[in-house]
Amino acid sequence: MRGAQGDLLRLVAAGQAESRAELARMSGLAASSVSLRVEELIGTGLLVEEGAGTSRGGRRPRRLRLSPSAGVLAVADLGAHHARLGLLDLSGTPLVVEERPCDIALGPEATMDWIAASFEDLLLRHGPPGVPLRGVGTGIPGPVDPATGRVVAPSRMPGWNNFPVAERLGSHFDLPVLVENDANLMAAGEARSWPGRETLMVLKAGSGIGCGVIVNGALHRGRGAAGDISHVRVRSDSSVTCSCGHLDCLEAYASGAALMAVLGEQGIAVERPGDIVALVEDGVPEATALVRNAGRLIGEVLTVLVNFLNPDAIVVGGGLSSAEPLISAIRAAVYERCLPLATRDLEIAASRSGPDAALLGAGALLLDAVLA
Amino acid sequence: MRGAQGDLLRLVAAGQAESRAELARMSGLAASSVSLRVEELIGTGLLVEEGAGTSRGGRRPRRLRLSPSAGVLAVADLGAHHARLGLLDLSGTPLVVEERPCDIALGPEATMDWIAASFEDLLLRHGPPGVPLRGVGTGIPGPVDPATGRVVAPSRMPGWNNFPVAERLGSHFDLPVLVENDANLMAAGEARSWPGRETLMVLKAGSGIGCGVIVNGALHRGRGAAGDISHVRVRSDSSVTCSCGHLDCLEAYASGAALMAVLGEQGIAVERPGDIVALVEDGVPEATALVRNAGRLIGEVLTVLVNFLNPDAIVVGGGLSSAEPLISAIRAAVYERCLPLATRDLEIAASRSGPDAALLGAGALLLDAVLA
DNA sequence: CCATCTTCCTTCGAAATCGAAGATATGGCG
DNA sequence: CGCCATATCTTCGATTTCGAAGGAAGATGG
Questions:
Q1: Which residues pair with B99 in a beta bridge?
Q2: CB-based contact B223 A307, cutoff 8 Å
Q3: What family classification does the UniProt entry report for this protein (chains A, B) (predicted)?
Q4: pLDDT tens profile A279-293
Q5: In terms of Cα–Cα distance, which of B179, B220, B187 is closest to B203?
Q6: Among A219, B146, B161, B225, which one is least packed by beta carbons within 10 Å?
Q7: In chain A, whose CA is at the least distance from the CA of B145?
Q8: What Å value separates CA B37 and C1' C14?
């Protein structure tokens, strides 16, 4: 699984290569070396040959796939009140995905132990017999220090500050463990749906506002908080104090939580960001206006970042992302104020990976650890 | 010069390795392979052995250096009214640097031909005899499309839009040619002075405001305009229309040109950004207040970007950077409003590479092309 | 249907790379 | 001073990787 062998498996798992010829092109190794190694990998049962692909004008390639029995990954995406949990094969294809209620206010120990137990449960009920678990990972709705796997100064996770999440989760499994910010995972998941786009900004618009950054195809972590845009000061007539102690943070105006609060004051009861989307689709004008305004504010913040980073695409995901006015308003703001060179081929679009993006991202990142 | 050989030369040139042992560690090759290749490189005259280094507790390493006769690079940093020109050896050490007046308003053809002639002149007068020219490069005070080497929509270079600068400069030399935005070159130059700091924002505060971005040790170009912060809208009571057509751009308030205009209105004549620094050092209160305010505005823009990118350091260069109040004000703004995780180990400091940063950056980037 | 081109994959000798062992050189310490 | 620990560099046989040539399988086009 080490070195060159790992590289080849990674290419196949990531869907970047499907045949020996493609592996040779992508890995830079000689075709003959690839053949040798592939033969070994088939021998050890990690790869399987699976029929022929489509010809590109010559002999048809013999398609390669990761063996379904090579292993599974258990991944989770932890939210404030729910968690999505899933099993993936090593190529990142979900075998099963479930959503279960949970409450991060119970604290990090209880929550991590609950995730571990849920993984065991999923494996028992849906894990293919005899296929080993190869890695576990979870997303966290707060900043994670990549060096230590600890949660650092989360704004809405009381009791979690500085808790060694990765260590606790890892204590249940003697395996590679991944703990990462949820927006970062979403970004890693989307990245695979945008081939050819090397630099992405992936916005997570849900109860909060998060953003994951892909630079040159790789997740940019910074010090663990990279992509944070929720505490940017927005231009506003009124004046709101954010939970972080500063004035007029984007999150205080444009997050799902902020919108729900405003709707609540107007006597329109909403429980979760998805309810806002439903209101917008039903044509409730108050909701539409709110969402459009949120999009404008987010878009104005993004203009700065688009000029600075010059991404190839801005991908909008999260519970609010299916509200069409949100994306339109973001588009309008960005295209209006950014430099022509920065917007020339910039695509601004809704998520392609859907609600499982974070789980897919966890799989993609875990794969690197597993095949290291 | 190809492949592994090039990698070893690059490591030596970049100062990342000084002995065979270090080369082995940095390159990942086996010590024996390194020895073989180094012997070859010494044989072809590209490397020379130069005395012994300091022991780290065992046998002393035999220090390796690029041969002074391996080649020279001719580099320039083009400004609005002046150009810095220099010759570097392949390890990026300047052999000679000169500043000459020039005028980009004469148009791209004349300017590029003038640069080429100046390179020839420098070589005649300062080039070591028999040492071949291995590459040429220049910085441009405007956006450069990395794919085509053309200037794209420059705000203050009339007549240059879409001109194939790299092609024109290259027509004089049958060699690798580099054309890059000036702030990007400065960033590439600073990067070598900040070992261990992988992600940098390098601010160029001169007549204009530019910024170069280093992510994971490599220059981030985006679509050619990455790092552009001059047209971010700032919070302001008054209301100024920028040359780009939008309201209240940072550049209209905090660039050297803007400061000079304000000072002019106050009857204080200044010719170039350096004069402002002199006024500040002389304790002229109007100048100090202006510079401090510019720093605050720049700092407020940087807060957004620091939260987003989580750089390891912010480096301030350019003609205004030696004005101490500028950096203090930037520091104050950033440390006040950024997330703790983002500022925990963030360093905000003046340039370490000095006025030749852009030339050094051109050398570093050219080296990659030369040793490709 | 057959010649020809393209692409995929394997074979096999040549070349590069590795890695273990040893030679060389130095600092530290009793 | 002599011995040991450490680090650098080289030697040499074993292993891996390369690359040119060729075989296999299919597309294309008369």
A1: B84
A2: no
A3: Belongs to the ROK (NagC/XylR) family.
A4: 999 999 999 999 999
A5: B187
A6: B161
A7: A341
A8: 19
Q: Write out which nucleotides of chain D lie closer than 7 A to a protein Cβ.
A: 5-13, 16-21, 23-28
CATH number at residue B114: 3.30.420.40
User: Which tens digits make up the pLDDT trace of A90-99?
Assistant: 999 999 999 9
Closest alpha carbon to A251 in A277, A231, A276, A271: A231
The runs of H, that is alpha helices, within chain B are 3-13, 20-27, 31-43, 108-126, 165-170, 182-191, 250-254, 256-265, 273-281, 285-309, 324-337, 340-343, 357-370
Whole-angstrom distance, CA of residue B207 vs CA of residue B90: 31
If pLDDT is split at 50, 70 and 90, which confidence band does B155 have? confident
Report the domain count for chain A. 3
**Domain harbouring B45, CATH code:** 1.10.10.10
Structure tokens at B371: 């040793």
pLDDT tens-place string over residues B35-85: 999 999 999 999 999 989 999 989 999 999 999 999 999 999 999 889 999
Look at residue A2 in the predicted model and tell me its pLDDT: 58
Q: Is the pLDDT of residue B18 over 70?
A: yes
A26 touches strand C (CB under 7 A): no
B337 and B201 share a domain? yes
User: Hey, what are A74's tokens?
Assistant: 């258990």
Determine the pLDDT at residue B357. Answer: 98
H and E: helices and strands count for chain B? 13, 14
- The answer to whether B339 contacts A233, with C-beta atoms less than 8 Å apart, is no
pLDDT tens sequence across A236-268: 877 888 888 888 999 999 999 999 999 999 999
Question: End-to-end distance of chain B based on CA atoms, in angstroms?
Answer: 7
B18, B142, B187, B195 from B139: Cα distances, Å? 30, 9, 12, 23
Interval B255-269: pLDDT, tens: 999 999 999 999 998
Distances (CA, A) of B317 to A139, A264, B211, B348, B354: 39, 50, 9, 11, 7
Phi–psi pair at B344, nearest 5 degrees: -50, -50
Q: CA(B53)–C1'(C23) in Å?
A: 20
Residue A62 CA, nucleotide D24 C1', distance (Å): 12
Q: Are A253 and A300 in contact (CB under 8 A)?
A: no
Strand C within 7 A of B57 CB = yes
Residues A225 and A295 in one domain: yes
pLDDT > 70? residue B279: yes
Same domain, A61 and A76: no
Q: What is the mean pLDDT of residues A123-138?
A: 97
Res. B371 pLDDT band, cuts 50 70 90:
confident
For nucleotide C19, give the residue with the nearest CA to its C1'. B30
At residue B251's C-alpha, the angle toward residues B248 and B256, to 5°, is 135
Q: Do B225 and A342 touch (CB under 8 A)?
A: yes
Are A46 and A84 contained in the same domain?
Answer: no
Partnered with residue B313 across adjacent β-strands are B200, B347
Fill in the DSSP letter of residue B198: -
Closest residue on chain A to B306 (Cα): A226
Judge: B213–A308 Cβ closer than 8 Å, yes or no: yes
Is A56 near strand C, with its CB below 7 A from some atom of it?
yes
Q: Do B220 and A309 touch (CB under 8 A)?
A: yes
- Rounded to an integer, the average pLDDT of A82-109 is 96
Q: Both B133 and B35 in a single domain?
A: no
Protein residues closer than 7 Å by CB to strand D:
A 3-4, 28-33, 36-37, 52, 55, 57-60; B 19-22, 31-32, 35-36, 38-39, 55-62
* Residue A167 lies in domain: 72-188+357-370
The residue-averaged pLDDT of A127-133 equals 96
pLDDT of residue B190: 98
Last residue of some domain: B37, B69, B101?
B69
Report the protein residue whose CA lies nearest the C1' of nucleotide D19: A30
Chain B residues within 8 A of A150 when measuring between CB atoms: none
